[in-house]
Amino acid sequence: MGKILVVDDASFMRMRSTRLLQEAGHEVVEAENGQDAVARYMAERPDLVLMDITMPVMDGIAATAAIKEYDPNANIVMVSALGQQSMVMAAIKAGARDFIVKPFEPNRVMETVRKFVS
Amino acid sequence: MDVKLINPFVAAAVSVLQQEVGGPIQRGPLRLEVSPLVGDDVTVLIGLAGGTKGVVMLTMSAPAVLRMASRMAGEQIAALDELSKSAVAELTNVISGQASAELEQLGHACNISAPTVVTGAGAEISTASVQRLVVPLETPCGVVTLHVAVRPG
């Protein structure tokens, strides 16, 4: 089981993801914006980051780039309602390893988590 | 009002509601309005900018918010608090995100803002002179009314 950082400005989504991941036995830490996510990443060194895109203070694309600059091996998966091709490309360019388009599908989330966390 | 810009929002609303709160979702009669929207207990707004400009709003009663949030969470949510409002804000966010992906395919790519939640029935929200398409959606949790006021950017 691993440590997973859940980043989303929506408290409901953090609650939903945290519960799903904890039920699967993972340790979860949370952040509610990109800036908070960068700080939490440095402090916690999680195995995986599930990152929203549209957030106040710092968005998920900028946070992904900042985390990858700090740790080029960071595993970051975008989880966003923004499924535009341009957004997916921007996320991958910033260093994201995968992209999950909402609505929230527990099976899809867990399938992706298993790719990065044993 | 360009139907090509509107349809993605209506289709996304039906699809996302069906997935998140369960079906069937019955679409009521469509109407066009220019007068200000008079909100129900909770109204969520998302702004659009870029190749499509405007605003998308979902408005619903407090009991509908609680029933939807409970279904989405898989547990009873009894208070109209930050968590339950965050659930319906997320619904609106996903609807707008899905519609914006479709609009990009049609050559009208747009950015969507973070959701704004207005609480309190009777709040008036004007879309100035831009016509709004109003679509009542009957869900198992109650009626959710979709308002879309968009124009090409």
List the keywords.
heterodimer, A: 118 residues, alpha/beta, 5 helices, 5 strands, 19% strand, B: 153 residues, alpha+beta, 8-stranded antiparallel beta sheet, two-stranded antiparallel sheet, 36% helix, globular
**What is the approximate shape of chain A?**
globular
The average pLDDT of chain B is: 93
- Helix-strand sequence of chain A: EHEHEHEHEH
Amino-to-carboxy terminus distance of chain B: 13 Å
Tell me the structural class of chain B. Answer: alpha+beta
Distance between the ends of chain A? 6 Å
Compute the number of helices of chain A. 5
Segments of chain A where pLDDT lies below 50 for 5+ residues? none
Mean pLDDT of chain A, rounded to whole units?
95
As a percent range, the share of strand residues of chain B is 25-35%
Strand order of the largest sheet of chain A: 2-1-3-4-5
How many beta-strand runs of chain A? 5
Walk me through the structure:
The complex is a heterodimer of chains A (118) and B (153). With 118 residues, chain A is α/β, with parallel strands linked by helices. Chain A is 47% helix and 19% strand. Chain A contains five helices and five strands, in the order βαβαβαβαβα. Chain A has a five-stranded parallel beta sheet with strand order 2-1-3-4-5, sandwiched between helices. In chain A, α2 packs parallel to α3. Chain A is globular, with a radius of gyration of 12 Å. The relative contact order of chain A is 0.19. Chain B is α+β, with helices and mostly antiparallel strands. Helix content of chain B is 36%, strand content 35%. Chain B is globular. The mean pLDDT of chain B is 93.
